[in-house]
């Protein structure tokens, strides 16, 4: 039941981004990249614009923290005294310092000297190639572009079938007035622009060079090689550009073959198919963008904008590494999608910065351990943002969770011993220092926050934030399990056990002071309402988790850190008993009760993931479709927007970030496969109308690769491949209850039953579970190729979403 490349390419072609008209805005353009360099091709052809970017294009200058008052102890003292103005004076660096920032990328423009009368194009996912035609009076220009998988160049071929004049030039005079003003403030000199290059000096960091080379062909076509280099003077970078161009030009056919082979292997790693054609198309578009950004050999992990900083503007939020959610959500797809190597640059980066985090911990918290501020440059430079996010100890602890996920999904004990365990341990040391034992005998966080809830106002701070309590439970449990599995002699282990045994409960109505409890219940609403004279019971979400002690989730908000215990940390699940199930249910109900008025796209996706973990498939699919319909551009990029006209979020910050789309891909996989706490669950959160679906090669905890088929509303079979061997636990979802377990290597079969089917597997072993033997020749994926709509993305002549009808008075 293997997929061949023909099947894969045919399915991908139905999700290619098809452009019926020109992408006249950068955000709608053709996206290309390889983790080292990226390009967006856009414009109507008069000219064709090529924005070229790379992740290390930074101004790294950073302020030094010299104020000795900058400490957690001083912050707590001032907060408890109500001296908020002094807190702002000490801790807010955003407006008074020259902080690190990504730089606006240069642009190339390809002109033909004539008016353009037509444009069409296609971004082929199978081989990561953009192509199209530009119609001029009496002439059609054909173009094709790709960023090779292993070379830091853009290859652009332009042909008209007969000779014509092409003009290609680099430029930086396209920057907005705001961007030019900011670069002047940063004392950037004017760029030096030549016929085939543009050099921009970066104060304190050498400079960058945008360069190109023309390769004429005998048939009148031309191939152009474009590159962007950073970190040296003009002469040295020009020499590097020449080496790149010579290498690629000397073996252009070989470069192309290697590029196509890389993407062929990428797409064959895992596969999903669902009956919602647009969500399926979104999934493959996101996995394509993930492949363009999260490369195993990348020098840096994926920041907010990846390899695609916006054209003409200073990158929003400085294009930095946000550790209060964005970086973590960016890498969510790596695990279930079986692209584990994509997170390797993140692990290397975090390990490289661990000494920086340890120094920050000593400086701010006055203890040993590690503390990761929220907004960082590529070398740990402080970018600074909200005080709540910057001083949140959970930034690094959540980063450590990705190390733990790698171990869970691989079973690699060497990784656990040498990388995950040492990294997690340092952040647990910080929490051990912060916690204080109260009169109730419980460990409490005396002063903390929930990132972005309340923005950076004083009410954003309080006692026992739910997010931190969840991270402590995760870290303590993971470390103690590691101690046991690795046989370590850990002197801190007794302390961790004591903390877990006596940690404060998640704040909720039960932990609220009586007077505050009664007031809050009054705001939530009465026990019942009356409709046309008939009482209708309304259950109040009284088991909902609070943001922190005495602070319920009391208004619509975009950041759901208080529910990270449910997802992604798995320390509170619907299988932990009736109380836990009610807490998860009521917490989701409270989120929906407060509404989507202040959500952002990443909030929509996060709640969809929470719904999937709570097995609310209808809710999860609805929210993913909402994200798709209202938060994405024609190229599938996520853009923050004001959606009041749609009755959705009023949150507006018109900027692109990548994490939300990647989170959407991960959430779709959550609907198809979950494996937390060692049990494989197939199709756990699909809505009832998804009667046909399938997936191949998704990765589960325990180093199992899982494939499964849903047809006519029933699971037909589940196939498991074990990389490391050991016990495999699969939730029994077959309608008969009795299941056949077949060893696909030996052909042996036996009958098994139970709510959870448990069996042992050999390293490399393969088995299949089914109620009825699959028919000979049955394919893995449902044949849904004729579904509409096909190729939903790309600029269309008719808008994907029609504007609201405006009625006259």
Question: How would you characterize the overall build of this protein?
Answer:
The chain is α+β, with helices and mostly antiparallel strands and 809 residues long. Among the domains are: 215 residues, Beta-galactosidase, Chain A, domain 5 (Distorted Sandwich), CATH 2.70.98; 229 residues, Glycosyltransferase; 89 residues, Golgi alpha-mannosidase II (Immunoglobulin-like, Sandwich). It is 32% helix and 21% strand. The protein is built from 20 helices and 37 strands. The strands form eleven sheets. Strands 1-8-9-10-11-16-15-14-13 form a nine-stranded antiparallel sheet, with helices on one face. The protein has a seven-stranded antiparallel sheet with strand order 17-30-31-32-37-34-35. It has a five-stranded antiparallel sheet with strand order 2-3-4-7-12. It is globular and about 80 Å long. The termini are far apart.
Number of strands: 37
**How many H/I helices?**
20
List the uncertain runs: 526-530, 801-809
Beta-strand content bin: 15-25%
Radius of gyration: 27 Å
First and last CA, distance? 61 Å
CATH topology of the domain at 72-97 and 308-510: Glycosyltransferase
**Computed structural class:** alpha+beta
Q: Identify the overall geometry.
A: globular
Largest sheet: 9 strands, antiparallel
> Largest beta sheet: what is the strand line-up?
1-8-9-10-11-16-15-14-13
Please identify, by name, the CATH architecture of the domain at 72-97 and 308-510: Alpha/alpha barrel
What do the pLDDT scores average to?
Answer: 91
CATH class descriptor name of the domain at 72-97 and 308-510: Mainly Alpha
């Amino acid at each position: 039941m293997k997929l061949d490349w023909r099947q894969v390419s045919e399915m991908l072609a139905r999700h290619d981004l098809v452009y019926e008209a020109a992408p006249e805005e950068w955000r709608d353009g053709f996206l290309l990249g390889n983790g080292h360099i990226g390009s967006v091709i856009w414009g109507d052809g008069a000219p064709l614009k090529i924005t070229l970017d790379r992740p290390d294009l930074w101004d790294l200058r950073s302020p030094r923290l010299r104020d000795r008052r900058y400490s957690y102890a001083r912050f707590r003292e001032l907060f408890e005294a109500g001296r908020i103005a002094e807190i702002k004076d000490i801790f807010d660096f955003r407006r008074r310092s020259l902080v690190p920032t990504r730089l606006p990328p240069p642009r190339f423009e390809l002109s033909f000297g004539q008016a353009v009368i037509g444009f069409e194009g296609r971004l082929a996912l199978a081989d990561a190639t953009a192509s199209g035609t530009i119609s001029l009076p009496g002439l059609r220009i054909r173009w094709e572009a790709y960023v090779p998988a292993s070379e830091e160049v853009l290859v652009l071929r332009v042909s008209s079938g007969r000779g014509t004049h092409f003009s290609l030039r680099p430029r930086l005079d396209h920057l907005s007035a705001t961007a030019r003003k900011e670069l002047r403030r940063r004392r950037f000199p004017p760029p030096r622009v030549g016929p085939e290059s543009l050099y921009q000096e970066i104060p304190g960091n050498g400079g960058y060079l945008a360069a190109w080379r023309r390769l004429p062909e005998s048939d009148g076509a031309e191939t152009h090689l474009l590159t962007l280099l950073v970190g040296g003077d003009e002469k040295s970078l020009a020499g590097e550009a020449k080496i790149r161009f010579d290498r690629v030009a000397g073996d252009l056919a070989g470069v192309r073959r290697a590029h196509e082979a890389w993407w062929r292997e990428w797409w064959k790693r895992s596969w999903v198919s669902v009956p919602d054609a647009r969500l399926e198309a979104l999934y493959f578009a996101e996995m394509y963008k993930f492949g363009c950004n999260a490369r195993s050999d990348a020098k840096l992990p994926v920041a907010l904008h990846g390899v695609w900083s916006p054209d003409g503007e200073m990158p929003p939020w400085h294009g930095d590494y946000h550790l209060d959610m964005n970086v973590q959500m960016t890498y969510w797809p790596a695990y279930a999608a079986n692209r584990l190597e994509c997170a390797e640059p993140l692990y290397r980066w975090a390990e490289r910065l661990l000494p920086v985090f340890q120094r920050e911990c000593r400086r701010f918290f006055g203890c040993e351990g590690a503390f990761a501020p929220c907004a960082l440059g590529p070398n740990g430079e402080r970018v600074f943002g909200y005080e709540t996010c910057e001083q949140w100890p959970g930034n690094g602890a959540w980063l450590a969770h990705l190390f733990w996920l790698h171990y869970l999904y691989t079973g690699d004990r060497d990784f656990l011993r040498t990388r995950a365990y040492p990294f997690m341990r340092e952040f647990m040391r910080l929490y051990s220092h912060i916690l204080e034992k109260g009169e109730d005998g419980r460990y409490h966080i005396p002063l903390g926050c929930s990132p972005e809830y309340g923005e950076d106002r004083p009410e954003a701070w309080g006692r026992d934030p739910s997010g931190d309590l969840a991270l402590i439970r995760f870290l303590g449990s993971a470390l103690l399990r590691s101690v046991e599995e690795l046989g370590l002699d850990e002197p801190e282990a007794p302390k961790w056990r004591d903390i877990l045994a006596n940690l404060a409960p998640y704040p909720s109505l039960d932990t609220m002071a009586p007077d505050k409890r009664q007031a809050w219940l009054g705001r939530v609403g009465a026990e019942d309402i009356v409709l046309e004279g008939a009482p209708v019971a309304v259950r109040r979400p009284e088991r909902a988790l609070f943001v922190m002690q005495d602070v319920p989730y009391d208004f619509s908000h975009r950041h759901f850190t208080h529910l990270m215990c449910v997802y992604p940390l798995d320390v509170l699940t619907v299988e932990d008993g009736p109380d836990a199930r009610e807490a998860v249910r009521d917490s989701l109900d409270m989120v929906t009760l407060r509404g989507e008025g202040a959500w952002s796209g990443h909030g929509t996706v996060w709640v969809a993931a929470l719904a999937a973990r709570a097995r609310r498939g209808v809710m999860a699919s609805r929210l993913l479709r909402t994200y798709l319909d209202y938060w994405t551009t024609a190229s599938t990029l996520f853009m923050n927007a004001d959606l009041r006209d749609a009755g959705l979020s009023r949150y507006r910050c018109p900027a692109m970030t990548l994490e939300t789309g990647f989170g959407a891909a991960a959430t779709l996989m959550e609907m198809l496969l979950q494996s937390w706490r060692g049990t494989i669950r197939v199709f756990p959160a699909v809505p009832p109308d998804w009667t046909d679906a399938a997936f191949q090669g998704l990765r589960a905890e325990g180093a199992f690769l899982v494939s499964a088929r849903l047809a006519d509303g029933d699971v037909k079979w589940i196939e498991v491949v074990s990389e490391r061997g050991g016990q495999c636990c699969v939730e029994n979802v077959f309608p008969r209850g009795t299941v056949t377990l077949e060893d696909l290597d030996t052909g042996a079969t036996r009958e098994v039953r139970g709510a959870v089917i448990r069996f042992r597997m050999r390293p490399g072993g393969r088995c299949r579970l089914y109620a009825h033997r699959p028919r000979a020749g049955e394919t893995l994926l449902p044949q849904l190729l004729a579904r509409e709509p096909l190729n939903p993305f790309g600029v269309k002549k008719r808008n994907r979403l029609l504007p609201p009808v405006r009625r006259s008075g």
